[in-house]
Design goal:
alpha/beta
Length: 238
């Protein structure tokens, strides 16, 4: 049975951000599910993705971008036959770490008070958006301006609370082999941090892309799909 590939988008994006990657994966004959990441809270988001995985028969390759990597790392290990993890410009936290904390470990992130737009919610939480006038510059500088403008308008916010919620008691990458794709031009998650997390996770292979922005599923779908296809060749552990 071939692997089903489950794609988990991150903050400031949505499932359609995987469209170009999906085209390449389905052309290779794979079943693909682009999970709707709620972006409301780390534990609840991971539970939602775990439920998607539970609905799938056969082996699964989990792929995540950005904050989605923290969500993927918290997916229930027994949710399904999870064969491999692919982190695409993504967080891979240890228990107790959160995304904002990790992003501050190394210099380079340009997401901050001057580039984030907060929207207070009636439940006391705060939604965060990337300021539209800075979106192309810091999120997807290798994407044409007209396309970046559409991405800025259709971005989905994550709550500040999700981005500061500590990761759970176990990290899926400790038990499942992982691959990392790192854009060396990422201005959201410092590339140095991504290399640190890849080494810590004992990445099977780490692929770097010179000058690639944070939005690699959009700007560099070929290399992203290639790594996913490589990971999909791994059998499920007995």
């Amino acid at each position: 049975m071939s692997h089903t590939i489950v794609l988990v988008h991150g903050a400031f994006a949505e499932s359609a951000s995987w469209d170009r990657v999906i085209e390449r994966l389905t052309a290779d004959g794979h079943r693909v599910v682009a999970a709707a990441n709620p972006l409301r809270g780390l534990a609840s988001d991971a539970a939602a993705v775990s439920d998607v995985v539970r609905s799938i028969e056969g082996p699964v390759v989990l792929v995540a971008h950005s904050y989605g990597g923290a969500v993927m790392s918290n997916v229930d290990a027994d949710a399904g036959e999870i064969a491999a993890l692919v982190y695409v410009n993504a967080f891979a936290p240890e228990p107790g770490e959160h995304c904002f904390q990790l992003a501050g470990m190394f210099p380079g992130s340009q997401l901050g008070p001057d580039t984030a737009r907060p929207v207070p919610l009636r439940d006391g939480k705060t939604d965060l958006y990337v300021a539209s006038e800075r979106f192309n510059e810091i999120f997807c500088q290798d994407v044409p301006a007209h396309e970046a403008a559409l991405m800025a308008v259709t971005q989905r916010p994550a709550t500040q609370e999700a981005l500061t919620e500590p990761s759970g008691a176990s990290s899926l990458w400790r038990d499942v082999p992982s691959w990392f794709v790192i854009g060396e031009g990422d201005r959201i998650i410092p590339p140095e941090l991504q290399h640190f997390m890849a080494r810590r996770a004992h990445s099977q292979r780490t692929v770097t892309v010179d000058e690639a922005s944070h939005a690699m599923p959009v700007s560099r779908p070929d290399v992203v799909a290639q790594v996913i296809l490589e990971a999909s060749q791994v059998p499920v552990a007995a």
